[in-house]
Amino acid sequence: MFILAHNIRSLHNVGSIFRSAEVFAVDKLFLTGYTGVPPQKEIAKTALGSEDRVVWEKAEDIFSLIEKLRAEGYAIVGLETGENVKSITELPSDRPVALVLGNEVTGIEHDVREKLDFLTEIPMPGHKKSLNVSVAAGIAMFVLSRKKW
């Protein structure tokens, strides 16, 4: 499983994503757009050393990265809420997943969404229907990692 963290503005969220990526054995974490990269104390504060154990790469152009990963056989899936979105529990497991995470406020940009194979969401029976991006990322990594077990 690959994670593409795109335009994540909070370095604390970036650190938390690193930490979950390490726990759930993500193969590679791509930091795209203006997402911050290690070493930075704000990332280290929540990553707790996992930024040194997770394979990661800064990728400036998310569009080129998406096309490269698709050519390698990855399903390019955006984690987002909205209409016509599949539950993450219903994702097919016939090919590896590259999961795209979007900005904390605006989500995945429209032009990036157009390049995705499909969108997925975490079922949320509560009223708010919104999770912090790093919390949502951790839940998604857990669900997707179970498909490997």
From TrEMBL:
Enumerate the UniProt keywords alphabetically.
Methyltransferase, Transferase
Q: Name one GO biological process term.
A: RNA processing
Origin organism is Candidatus Uhrbacteria bacterium GW2011_GWF2_44_350
GO terms for cellular component:
cytosol
Q: Name one GO molecular function term.
A: RNA methyltransferase activity
Which residue ranges does the record assign to the tRNA/rRNA methyltransferase SpoU type domain? Answer: 2-142
Q: What is this protein called?
A: tRNA/rRNA methyltransferase (SpoU)
Q: Per its UniProt record, what Pfam families does this chain match?
A: SpoU_methylase
